[in-house]
Write a structure and sequence with these properties.
5-stranded mixed β-sheet; 26% strand; 156 residues; alpha+beta; 4 helices; 5 strands
Length: 156
């Protein structure tokens, strides 16, 4: 079973550079952003959401570690907020590094997140998944997540 360790500054730098690239690519694939503006828009989004980096209030950034081999296999970023219907954690980013994908680490990470959320007294975990990310969608459904909203588009 994986464990969630708080990111170090070095972890954070690697996470940030990769996440900005990945988010830009996902927004382009989703048809939301033009390729020419995607990197800059992605960078600005991260600056807004993590204005104080690792020290941004209510943001929890983790390195996902397989303790059996003491290796970082990915990362996880959640934001916790108190809402009228309870305390919620929103998954902003979850990534299992490519060479560790398909080995059960995604499922283990989601299970570890549930335990961490309980420790943080969270009532509900929320997330967004891009429609083109069928693997992630399958993982979330397998873990018991249900669709709450659907956005659709049609390119003309």
């Amino acid at each position: 079973m994986v464990i969630l360790n708080s990111m170090t500054e070095q972890d954070y730098e690697g996470f940030l550079s990769q996440s900005i690239i990945d988010y830009a690519e996902d927004k382009v694939k989703a048809g939301t952003w033009a390729p020419s503006e995607a990197q800059e828009l992605s960078r600005k989004s991260f600056e807004q959401l993590l204005p104080e980096g690792l020290n941004t209030p209510n943001s929890y950034l983790y390195a996902v570690v397989d303790p059996a081999v003491d290796v970082k296999v990915g990362y996880l970023w959640i934001h916790i907020s108190d809402e009228p219907l309870g305390r919620s954690a929103f998954i902003y980013d979850i990534m299992i590094y490519e060479n560790f994908q398909g080995k059960g680490y995604g499922t283990q990470t989601m299970s570890a997140l549930e335990e961490e959320a309980k420790r943080l007294q969270v009532d509900k975990i929320l997330l967004h998944v891009f429609g083109h990310n069928k693997i992630a969608l399958g993982l979330y459904q397998k873990m018991g997540y249900e669709v709450t909203d659907i956005s659709m588009s049609k390119r003309l």
